[in-house]
UniProtKB/TrEMBL annotation:
UniProt GO MF annotations: oxidoreductase activity
Pfam family membership, one: adh_short_C2
Entry superkingdom: Bacteria
TM segment ranges: none
Key words of the record: Oxidoreductase
Coiled coil: none
Protein name according to UniProt: 2,5-dichloro-2,5-cyclohexadiene-1,4-diol dehydrogenase
PROSITE patterns for this protein: ADH_SHORT
InterPro entries documented for this protein: NAD(P)-bd_dom_sf, Sc_DH/Rdtase_CS, SDR_fam
Organism of this sequence: Bdellovibrio bacteriovorus str. Tiberius
PANTHER family found in the cross-reference section: DEHYDROGENASES, SHORT CHAIN (PTHR24321), ESTRADIOL 17-BETA-DEHYDROGENASE 8-RELATED (PTHR24321:SF8)
Family: Belongs to the short-chain dehydrogenases/reductases (SDR) family.
Length: 245
């Protein structure tokens, strides 16, 4: 994505899970397009690195230490955002953990809950704070990261797959309730990317290469842009054809 593809100057974008990987690439892309980016993550070291990368390109960004599984922390973070900016235009909820491998019959209940708390409740916590702030300024756009494990299943990851299926349903529920009030909500489902977790699960997609982080960021920004003004409740499989196999 070239600098300035989208015009987000004067806008505020939250990236939950922006300290590395897809979240970092998307935070940088928002900044390149003129948005003031607020990164939420419990990884302060990674967050500082993302801030450094954004400021190196003269972008605007802040970091707030936040564990999205803790609703009190999320509420505090968004109170800070409201006090600082008085608005929120875009949100990319990219919070996830994969947990340990197991079968549905041997998965420990507490381990299952840990994954659900971050992958599902983390997204819920963020949207519960994002939506009211967006409504105060006439609307906005939310993109939730699901991965290719949302539309399909996978052996050995029952909690992860269940959490991603649930996020898709939650996103559709938000789209159904708030699209008429100016808030669009969509999901992206990256497939075979340069990440250890998915490398172990997925073979090369039909396009026969690994997806670049910047390509995922491009999907997020397009869904947030006016070019996607009539797109809400959509599950975008930006996976090179993985779910088509």
């Amino acid at each position: 994505m070239s600098k300035g593809t989208y015009r987000f100057s004067g806008k505020v974008a939250v990236v939950a899970g922006g300290s590395s990987g897809t979240g970092r690439a998307t935070a940088i892309a928002f900044a390149q397009s003129g948005a003031h980016v607020v990164i939420l993550d419990r990884d302060a070291v990674g967050g500082a690195r993302t801030l450094e990368m954004i400021r190196r390109i003269d972008g605007l960004a802040d970091f707030i230490s936040c564990d999205v599984a803790d609703f009190a922390m999320v509420k505090t973070a968004f109170s800070q955002i409201e006090m600082a900016f008085g608005r929120l235009d875009y949100a990319f909820n990219n919070t996830l953990i994969d947990g340990v491998w197991s079968s549905p019959t041997s998965c420990a209940t507490e381990a299952f809950k840990d994954i659900i708390n971050t992958n599902l409740y983390g997204v819920l916590h963020c949207m519960k704070s994002e939506i009211p702030l967006m409504l105060k300024n006439g609307g906005g756009a939310i993109v939730n990261c699901v991965s290719a494990m949302g539309p399909v299943g996978a052996v050995g990851m029952p909690a992860y797959v269940a959490s991603k299926h649930a996020v898709m349903g939650l996103t559709k529920a938000v789209a159904a309730e708030f699209s008429g009030k100016g808030i669009r909500a969509n999901c992206i489902c990256p497939g075979s990317i340069d990440a250890p977790m998915l490398e172990s699960l997925l073979t090369a997609p039909p396009v026969n290469r690994i997806e670049r982080m910047e390509e995922i960021a491009e999907c997020v920004l397009w869904l947030c842009s006016d070019s996607a003004s009539f797109v809400s409740g959509h599950i975008m499989a930006d996976d090179g054809g993985v779910v088509a196999l």
